[in-house]
């Protein structure tokens, strides 16, 4: 990675994505500082990582020393612990203001050379970067879920992201065995401009009583040879995150294709958030 060596990674948010990113980084021998707002959330995240590692070992998918891997992760609610990290990967909720507040706060703590990777589903990277004084060091890295199993990430260049930041990010991703493809900035990037249309329309089909969730996903998996149908994918992402993302797409494109399905909104009201709450389109 040229002159700049990444040894430690700060991860903001220990939810669905932060947990996966922390596992992947620790597996790849990086020192991890995992930050969230409560110790309870952090402990839950660590337990998930431990279970995943043990399961992978049991299924002979890998052979990790579970304790050694877990010990690479420092859990904290105190952003001051980020003072020495080389890279920050942010995975907090899909809300521009919430993200910006946190960037303002941690950038005063992190060292000047630190690179900030925004893991957002739909918010344009320039929307975040241009509000910050270090926009050349801000880049989008759209990690896909589940992170430890993924082999590709979209890397999104904001309009001020420097070439050095792009090169470092691609080398960093290579070091964790993730191929990257650099694209230009646009709300939803490539992945979510496409995938959220499928998920939203699949939810409309359920609402209209045209088909059951099982049938819709079956057609995708058996017919289109997708590994996962759109409704299982929505459950995996989190229905709340899907709704926030579709709303962001609509706020930028003002296109009726991106009007969020009432079915998805109703599920959020009922707390049916997918895998993370135990019930979404399917039961877990
Ligand atoms: N879920 C997916 O499949 C997926 C995929 C790619 C990108 N993303 C994006 O990643 C981001 C996170 O999504 P998620 O699904 O992990 O959400 P999540 O709701 O599961 O987790 C978000 C976490 O951030 C924490 N948090 C909130 N404010 C914080 C703060 N100030 N400091 C530290 N932690 C804070 C919350 O407590 C929570 O644990 C979103 O922008 C989302 O769009 C999600």
Automatic annotation (TrEMBL):
GO function term, MF aspect, one: oxidoreductase activity, acting on the CH-OH group of donors, NAD or NADP as acceptor
Keyword NAD: yes
Keyword annotations: NAD, Oxidoreductase
Pathway in which this enzyme or protein is active: Lipid metabolism; butanoate metabolism
TM region positions: none
Site positions for Important for catalytic activity: 142
Gene3D superfamilies: N-(1-d-carboxylethyl)-l-norvaline Dehydrogenase, domain 2, NAD(P)-binding Rossmann-like Domain
GO biological process, one term: fatty acid metabolic process
All residue ranges annotated as the 3-hydroxyacyl-CoA dehydrogenase NAD binding domain in the record: 9-185
Residue ranges of domain 3-hydroxyacyl-CoA dehydrogenase C-terminal in the record: 188-284
Tree of life domain: Bacteria
PANTHER family in alphabetical order: 3-HYDROXYACYL-COA DEHYDROGENASE FAMILY PROTEIN, 3-HYDROXYBUTYRYL-COA DEHYDROGENASE
The protein's name in its UniProt record: 3-hydroxybutyryl-CoA dehydrogenase
Originating organism: Lacrimispora algidixylanolytica
Lineage, top ranks: Bacteria, Bacillati, Bacillota, Clostridia, Lachnospirales
């Amino acid at each position: 990675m040229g002159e700049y060596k990444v040894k430690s990674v700060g991860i903001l948010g220990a939810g669905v994505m932060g947990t996966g990113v922390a596992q992947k980084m620790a597996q790849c021998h990086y020192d991890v500082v995992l930050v969230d707002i409560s110790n309870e959330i952090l402990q839950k995240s660590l337990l998930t990582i431990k279970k995943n590692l043990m399961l992978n070992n049991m299924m002979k998918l890998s052979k990790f020393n579970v304790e050694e891997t877990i010990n690479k992760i420092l859990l904290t609610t105190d952003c001051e612990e980020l003072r020495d990290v080389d890279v920050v990967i942010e995975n907090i909720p899909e809300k521009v203001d919430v993200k910006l507040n946190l960037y303002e706060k941690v950038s005063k703590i992190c060292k000047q050379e630190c690179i900030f990777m925004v893991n957002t589903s739909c918010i344009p990277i320039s929307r975040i970067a241009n509000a910050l004084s270090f926009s050349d060091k801000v880049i989008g890295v759209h990690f896909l879920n589940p992170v430890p199993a993924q082999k590709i990430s979209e890397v999104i260049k904001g309009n001020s992201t420097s070439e050095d930041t792009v090169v470092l990010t691609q080398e960093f991703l290579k070091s964790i065995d993730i191929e990257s493809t650099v694209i230009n900035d646009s709300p939803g990037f490539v992945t979510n401009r496409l995938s959220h249309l499928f998920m939203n329309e699949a939810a409309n089909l359920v609402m209209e009583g045209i088909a059951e969730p099982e049938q819709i996903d079956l057609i995708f998996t058996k017919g289109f040879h997708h590994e996962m149908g759109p409704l299982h994918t929505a459950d995996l992402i989190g229905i709340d995150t899907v709704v926030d993302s579709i709303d962001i797409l609509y706020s930028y494109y003002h296109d009726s294709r991106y009007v969020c399905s009432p079915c998805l909104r109703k599920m959020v009201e009922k707390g049916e958030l997918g895998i993370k709450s135990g019930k979404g389109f399917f039961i877990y």
